[in-house]
Design a protein that fits this description.
The chain is mainly alpha-helical. The chain has helices at residues 5-30, 34-61. Pfam families: HIG_1_N.
Protein backbone atom coordinates (compact mmCIF):
# COMPACT_ATOMS: atom_id res chain seq x y z
CA UNK A 1 0.00 0.00 0.00
CA UNK A 2 2.80 2.46 0.80
CA UNK A 3 4.30 1.99 -2.67
CA UNK A 4 1.09 3.41 -4.20
CA UNK A 5 1.38 7.12 -5.14
CA UNK A 6 -2.33 7.67 -4.51
CA UNK A 7 -1.78 6.62 -0.90
CA UNK A 8 0.59 9.57 -0.47
CA UNK A 9 -1.99 11.94 -1.97
CA UNK A 10 -4.52 10.72 0.59
CA UNK A 11 -2.01 11.11 3.42
CA UNK A 12 -1.18 14.68 2.34
CA UNK A 13 -4.89 15.53 2.33
CA UNK A 14 -5.34 14.08 5.83
CA UNK A 15 -2.29 15.93 7.15
CA UNK A 16 -3.55 19.16 5.58
CA UNK A 17 -6.84 18.78 7.45
CA UNK A 18 -4.97 18.21 10.70
CA UNK A 19 -2.76 21.25 10.08
CA UNK A 20 -5.74 23.49 9.32
CA UNK A 21 -7.52 22.21 12.43
CA UNK A 22 -4.52 22.91 14.64
CA UNK A 23 -4.12 26.37 13.09
CA UNK A 24 -7.79 27.10 13.76
CA UNK A 25 -7.63 25.88 17.36
CA UNK A 26 -4.54 28.01 17.89
CA UNK A 27 -6.43 31.00 16.52
CA UNK A 28 -9.28 30.40 18.94
CA UNK A 29 -6.81 30.19 21.81
CA UNK A 30 -5.13 33.45 20.80
CA UNK A 31 -8.48 35.17 20.35
CA UNK A 32 -8.13 36.28 16.74
CA UNK A 33 -10.91 37.91 14.74
CA UNK A 34 -14.03 35.68 14.76
CA UNK A 35 -14.54 36.23 11.01
CA UNK A 36 -11.04 34.92 10.30
CA UNK A 37 -11.60 31.94 12.60
CA UNK A 38 -14.85 31.18 10.80
CA UNK A 39 -13.11 31.28 7.42
CA UNK A 40 -10.38 28.94 8.68
CA UNK A 41 -12.99 26.47 9.90
CA UNK A 42 -14.83 26.71 6.56
CA UNK A 43 -11.53 25.89 4.85
CA UNK A 44 -11.14 22.92 7.20
CA UNK A 45 -14.59 21.62 6.27
CA UNK A 46 -13.76 21.88 2.55
CA UNK A 47 -10.39 20.15 3.05
CA UNK A 48 -12.03 17.48 5.19
CA UNK A 49 -14.63 16.84 2.48
CA UNK A 50 -11.87 16.45 -0.10
CA UNK A 51 -9.92 14.11 2.20
CA UNK A 52 -12.97 11.90 2.80
CA UNK A 53 -13.70 11.74 -0.93
CA UNK A 54 -10.09 10.77 -1.61
CA UNK A 55 -10.17 8.10 1.10
CA UNK A 56 -13.38 6.58 -0.25
CA UNK A 57 -12.00 6.70 -3.79
CA UNK A 58 -8.78 5.04 -2.64
CA UNK A 59 -10.67 2.22 -0.92
CA UNK A 60 -13.00 1.79 -3.89
CA UNK A 61 -10.16 1.67 -6.42
CA UNK A 62 -8.16 -0.80 -4.33
CA UNK A 63 -11.00 -3.32 -4.10
CA UNK A 64 -12.70 -2.29 -0.87
CA UNK A 65 -10.85 -4.73 1.38
Amino acid sequence: MTNDPFFYVVMIAVLAVAAILLYGIGGFARGVDPKKSNKVMQLRIAAQFLAVVLIVLFVWLRGGN
